[in-house]
Design goal:
Layout lengths: L3 E7 L5 H12 L2 E4 L18 H6 L2 E2 L12 H17 L4 E4 L3 H9 L9 H14 L1 H11 L1 H6 L5 H14 L3 H4 L14 E8 L2 H18 L1 H10 L15 H7 L5 H23 L6 E4 L10 H7 L1
Helix pairs in contact: 3-4, 5-6, 5-8, 6-8, 10-13, 12-13
């Protein structure tokens, strides 16, 4: 298992976290989180963050490393994930990496996308348009010039919409076309032994699990947790502020949605996120799939994972 990195990927609410923890216990591994929102302190319920007790029993990395008002880059994630992986391997243990932020995974696995440098004036104009026209208008514009990118970028994700439009503005080529370098390269860290395992459920079952998950989160105190973040005088940064489960409640707190409307939007955006994740995962040729339809206790899949490994 030396220098082994086993990555469990899947759509939101697929049960990948439960499977990853069962696998880590079985092979004496440590976990690296591939989740762009679990990095934020205080955002626990809405990100399905493992509890303090679970993390005390099983080492987790790249969780609770930033505050909601701070920005956090993909490059920083790659740097910290590399460092964590090296430290885990020095202890003679394998890595189990798990999460649904596939941009984080692909940049860690295949390398950062080398695009044109930022254009400050263009970005400033995009930010002004976001204020005056709304993010839906910018996302619709992206769908016209790069439908592939628009299909995988959430319509509330200003940072990535901005970058995709910027790349098209500067190069005349869709960012999705330029990013296909990811599909023709092997692992960036060839000194590590990678295994990519995908947890797959059909759309209907995924949607049912999403609805159940939202219900559990609300019962666990998601509204109150989001209110504490909203009321913090230090504010909420643009990245943390787009997190599904929080962004919709922030709209409620701002008086733009009723609580019932916000909850329905959480379900809609979660389903949309799952669709985007499904699209991304199809591009990973190295992935080995586990079909989990009808399996509620995801740990039941552990023998099949061990057989693959």
């Amino acid at each position: 298992m030396e220098n082994r990195v086993i990555t469990i990927l899947g759509c939101t609410a697929s049960g990948k976290g439960t499977l990853a923890r069962a696998l880590a216990h079985a092979i004496n591994a440590e976990i690296i989180s591939l989740d762009s929102m679990k990095i934020y302190r205080g955002m626990n319920i809405g990100t399905a963050k493992p509890s303090a007790e679970v993390r005390a029993a099983l080492p987790h990395h790249l969780i609770d490393i930033a505050d909601p008002w701070e920005e956090f880059s993909v490059a920083r994630f790659v740097e910290l994930a590399d460092r964590a992986g090296e430290e885990i391997h020095r202890r003679g243990r394998p890595v189990v990496a798990v999460g649904g932020t596939l941009l984080y995974f692909k940049c860690w696995y295949a390398g950062l996308f080398e695009g044109p440098p930022a254009a400050p004036e263009f970005r400033a104009d995009i930010r002004r348009r976001a204020e005056s026209e709304g993010l839906d208008a910018l996302h619709a514009e992206l769908a016209q010039v790069d439908p592939e990118a628009a299909a995988r970028i959430h319509r509330n994700d200003l940072r990535r919409i901005e970058r995709a439009l910027e790349v098209y503005h500067l190069t005349g080529r869709p960012i999705s076309e330029l990013q296909r370098q990811w599909n023709s390269t092997g692992p960036r860290r060839a000194d590590w032994r990678w295994s990519l395992i995908g947890l797959r459920r059909d759309r209907e079952e995924t949607n049912r699990r999403i609805n159940q998950r939202v219900k559990r989160m609300l019962a666990a105190g998601l509204v109150e947790e989001a209110r504490r973040i909203w009321d913090d005088p230090r504010g909420v940064g643009p990245q943390a502020g787009q997190a599904v489960g929080y962004a919709e409640l922030f709209e409620h707190f701002a008086g733009r949605l009723s609580l019932e409307e916000a909850v329905e939007q959480i379900k809609i955006h979660s389903r949309r996120l799952a669709k985007q994740q499904r699209t991304w995962l199809k591009s990973l040729r190295e992935i080995q799939w586990l079909d989990a339809d009808g399996i509620e206790d995801t740990a039941e899949l552990l023998p099949r994972v061990l057989e693959i490994l």
